[in-house]
Write a structure and sequence with these properties.
The chain is 98% helix and 0% strand. The protein has 81 residues and is an all-alpha fold. It is rod-shaped. The N and C termini lie far apart (118 Å).
């Protein structure tokens, strides 16, 4: 009877160790996947921000070209007119 009890306790302890090891692996996997998702979100957010900045840069360059062209022709009109 005592041998059976020791064997079952040893089995329980071994299963407990295996379960702890599986939990450790599971936690590590979850931590890695969470870090990966976080990096991906940060990358996507930065990409979106840079696209908006690029669009604003293009718009400001076009607006500057239009303003300079209009001012140049108005000045030419006043000088020649």
């Amino acid at each position: 009877m005592a041998i059976k009890m020791r064997q079952s306790l040893a089995q329980i302890e071994q299963e407990f160790r295996h379960e702890m090891q599986r939990d450790r692996h599971r936690r590590e996997h979850l931590r890695r996947s969470a870090a990966l998702r976080s990096r991906k979100r940060a990358h996507d957010k930065e990409k979106q921000r840079s696209s908006v900045r690029f669009g604003l840069l293009v718009l400001s360059l076009i607006a500057t070209a239009v303003v300079v062209t209009v001012a140049m022709f108005e000045t030419l009109y006043y000088l020649l007119g």
